[in-house]
Specification:
This protein is of the alpha/beta class. The protein contains 15 helices and twelve strands. The strands form two sheets. A six-stranded parallel beta sheet has the order 2-1-3-4-5-6, sandwiched between helices. A six-stranded parallel beta sheet has the order 9-8-7-10-11-12, with helices on both faces. Its EC number is 2.4.-.-.
């Protein structure tokens, strides 16, 4: 009989629009554990959470962002100064660039670690909750607080984390530093990277932690259909991401403009799914470069995962494109693969673990516009693209099926939680 109880610490889920891909995972975790409780680090006070059957614990978020936040932050920071090993971090920060930015990062890490430790004390010692394992969906500095709680109060507690992109790769951070990272890696029970690329990064940069870092791929559910191949003349291109700097969506605009210039008889329909801080700027840029030409541009804005699948069911696409400068391993590529859409993607992060020569085209990490355009143009030949579509679906089934990956991951957590 399932007896293990797990806390799942998120950024904000089930609130907000981020972390949408955690939903499928939680359904499988609920089958592996007797009790699963969500602990978001933040939630908008006026927001309605997304539907979930799991209990949501807001005690940590309320302590961190409540009306007494200023006093709590200061008190937690001061408490963190004598509870956590931070001198090595301080020396590194003071020797490096971005000194002031990283001093603030260290201070944030200290107060968040101490605040989360206090949260666990209140949950276990005062509210009499039984917790077997704390699972952080990202590599938060709060992990240090969970480790200290385990060491001082509950040696049987297990502390694990997933590792994605910005939370893992320190060189992708603006200051090149993640607060209390050495202590986190030394004390955590297991790290589950979403990609082989991430696992190799940990082994290279933090060799002592390599033995407890594993690859645990994300996954998407079987959509139950395949995207139909287009029959109309226009080349149909789709992309899906937040509209932020590292996604480099202006390169897609430039590549389409290049295609139209090189092939006077060609027309293109580009659909982009997603919004973000540069959304209006991207719209204006697309209009200036493609307006009045043989291009149809569709900006859907943000779509929930089920609406993305509805679009893939109802509209036809020749190719999915990702030109990011940095990635963990995109769920958007998994979704495209699951419905059999061939992919063009830059060779960054874990993209090469999804995209290969049989299901798409992997282009250099920093491609020129002609390279992107040439890769997209390959899919004008729809007869030869059929094999790419078949392979894309087969590769999803083999590597990124939620029905395979998440029960396996859930059992790994159960095994860790059950250790003496």
């Amino acid at each position: 009989m399932k007896q293990e109880r797990i806390l799942v610490v998120t950024t904000s889920y089930p609130y907000g629009r981020n972390e949408a891909f955690i939903k499928a995972e939680l359904e499988y975790l609920a089958q592996c554990f007797a009790h699963v409780e969500l602990v978001p680090g933040f939630y908008p006070r006026d927001a309605t959470p997304r539907p979930t059957s799991l209990p949501v614990n807001l005690d940590y978020a309320n302590a961190r962002w409540g009306v007494q936040r200023r006093f709590i932050v200061v008190g937690s920071f001061l408490g963190g100064l004598w509870r956590y090993a931070w001198l090595d971090d301080a020396r590194r920060v003071m020797r490096g660039a971005h000194r002031w930015e990283n001093v603030k990062e260290l201070a944030r890490a200290l107060y968040r670690a101490r605040l989360f430790e206090r949260f666990l004390v209140e949950q276990v010692r005062y509210a009499n909750k039984k917790i077997d394992i704390v699972y952080f969906y990202w590599m938060f500095p709060e992990i240090a607080g969970a480790i200290r709680f385990r060491n001082v109060y509950q040696p049987s507690l297990k502390v694990v984390s997933r590792a994605h992109r910005g939370d893992l790769y320190e060189d992708k951070r603006s200051g090149g530093y993640a607060g209390l990272r050495q202590g986190v890696l030394a004390g955590i029970d297991a790290i589950f990277s979403i990609s082989e690329h991430g696992r190799a990064y940990v082994a290279r940069e933090h060799p002592a932690a390599a033995r407890k870092c594993f690859t645990a791929r994300l996954g998407v559910d079987d959509p139950g259909f395949k995207n139909a191949q287009p029959h109309e003349e226009a080349l149909s291109v789709v992309s899906c991401s937040f509209v932020v700097e590292e996604k480099r969506l202006h390169l897609i605009v430039d590549a389409i403009a290049h295609l139209l210039e090189a092939a006077p008889s060609l027309s293109v329909r580009w659909t982009h799914i997603g919004d973000g801080g540069l959304f209006e700027e991207l719209q204006a840029y697309a209009q200036s470069k493609l307006g009045g030409r043989r291009a149809e541009v569709v900006f859907t804005g943000y779509l929930a995962q089920e609406d993305v699948m509805k679009l893939y069911r109802e509209r036809t696409f020749d190719v999915f494109v990702n030109v990011s400068s940095s990635e963990g391993i995109p769920v958007s590529l998994m979704e495209a693969s699951s419905v059999g859409i061939p992919m063009v993607a830059t060779d960054v992060g874990g993209n090469s673990e999804i995209v290969n020569e049989s299901n798409g085209i992997l282009i250099p990490a920093d491609p020129d516009v002609a390279t992107i355009a040439g890769a997209l143009a390959r899919f004008r030949d729809r007869a030869s693209a059929v094999a790419y579509r078949t392979r894309a679906r087969a590769d999803w089934q083999e590597k990124y099926s939620a029905a395979h990956n998440y029960p396996q991951f859930g059992q790994s957590l159960v095994d860790i939680a059950s250790r003496p």
